[in-house]
Amino acid sequence: MSDTPAIQLVGLRKSFGAGEHEVVAVDSVDLTIDDGEFFSLLGPSGSGKTTVLRMIAGFELPTAGAILLQGHDVTRQAPYDRDVNTVFQDYALFPHMTVLENIEYGLKVKKVGRHERRRRAAEMLDSVRLGNYGHRKPSQLSGGQRQRVALARALVNRPKVLLLDEPLGALDLKLREEMQVELKAIQREVGITFVFVTHDQGEALSMSNRIAVFNLGRIEQVGTPREIYDHPETSFVAGFVGTSNVLSAALSHELMGVAGVHSVRPERIRVVQEHTAESEVTVAGVVTDVQYLGADSRIRVELADGSPLLANVPSDGLVGVAIGGPIRLAWSRFAAFAVADTVPLHDIHEHDIHEHDIPQQHQQHDIIHSQGGDQ
Ligand SMILES: Nc1ncnc2c1ncn2[C@@H]1O[C@H](COP(=O)(O)OP(=O)(O)OP(=O)(O)O)[C@@H](O)[C@H]1O
Ligand SMILES: [Mg+2]
């Protein structure tokens, strides 16, 4: 591992079109990715993740700013002069070639000798745990196996950096979860810097060393999964990563006597009877819904001013909780964090539907935004 960062993005900007048709896809992005990191770009659809990745790869020229790889400015360099490889979602293997031939292809183009080629391809196939599949055609593999071949095909070139754009997007949930574990293990093994694009917060949280959260072409926060989840810096991050209650400035002041917008995770909220400690915030409301999720249940509550509040509580503590009935909730003052009010949460609010109805990748939209009655 080297002390020189694998990637530096400096004041990166990309706009498409001109005049009134101009679309700013990426704006003012500054980012340093360390050598050997598993780094994720996380954000909703259209937030600029793929555009950033394409600029790093050299498929897209920035409108402004610079890209450094291993300390060298490559902003104007052609893709093939950069020490990076990309794995796309539609991994596009050559159907007429065997698995082994697919993996060897890049080395062949680079005029690596036949013997050496075979050896490196076979070795790579082993490290993606497909040692016995070299003679098969891609059509004789499962989706997850094909994805691993695509990975091997990129890794065999021994790039300094591997760029992955939603590489698990086409897989079903179970396979996706298996591949998350595998991908992480492979990255640890090969020690190559991975830049991983996803709109799935669970995926980003479970796999990454660090995450950059994108919104509208800009980075809202960079941090470890823990930092991002436990200390979201903006209302957007609080809502997008996990489920959060975002309390308006007015409500934060009324309940906690603090200034500014705050966020509280539903799992930090308890059901209480009457008295609670001084260090706690208590609030009364009416139960509007109870969702039984097994060990835990999710309670939706409407506060006196009409704001919604979501609490995740152990199901065995639900005695006396009934839809339409009164409830008292409490949380520690330390569980509430001031967040910058960056939002456009109005859009996200529309997707506030039960997660049983929706595929996992949309769960991050499940957010409660308390802004009184004007929402
Ligand atoms: N070639 C292009 N011409 C015009 N607009 C573009 C072009 N490529 C991307 N955009 C726009 O730039 C914005 C960012 O797109 P980008 O593909 O980077 O988003 P993304 O975060 O990868 O989204 P997704 O999760 O849907 O893949 C979008 O508004 C998109 O419509
Ligand atoms: Mg994309």
Describe this structure in words.
- This protein has 375 residues and is an alpha/beta fold.
- The protein has 2 domains: 7-235, P-loop containing nucleotide triphosphate hydrolases (Rossmann fold), CATH 3.40.50; 243-370, Beta Barrel (OB fold (Dihydrolipoamide Acetyltransferase, E2P)), CATH 2.40.50.100.
- Helix content is 26%, strand content 29%.
- The protein has 10 helices and 19 strands.
- It has a 6-stranded mixed β-sheet with strand order 6-7-8-3-9-10, sandwiched between helices.
- A hairpin with a 6-residue loop joins strand 1 and strand 2 (23-33).
- The longest helix has 18 residues, at 173-190.
- It is elongated and about 75 Å long.
- The model is unreliable at 344-375 (pLDDT under 50).
- The site of magnesium ion has 2 residues, from helix 1.
Kindly give the count of domains.
Answer: 2
Which hetero compounds are present in the coordinates? adenosine-5'-triphosphate, magnesium ion
The protein's oligomeric status is single chain
The CATH C-level name of the largest domain is Alpha Beta
Given as residue ranges, the uncertain stretches (5+ residues, pLDDT < 50) are 344-375
Number of helices: 10
In total, the number of strands is 19
Rounded to an integer in angstroms, the radius of gyration calculated over CA atoms is 24 Å
Whole-Å distance between the termini?
50 Å
Question: Can you tell me the overall shape?
Answer: elongated
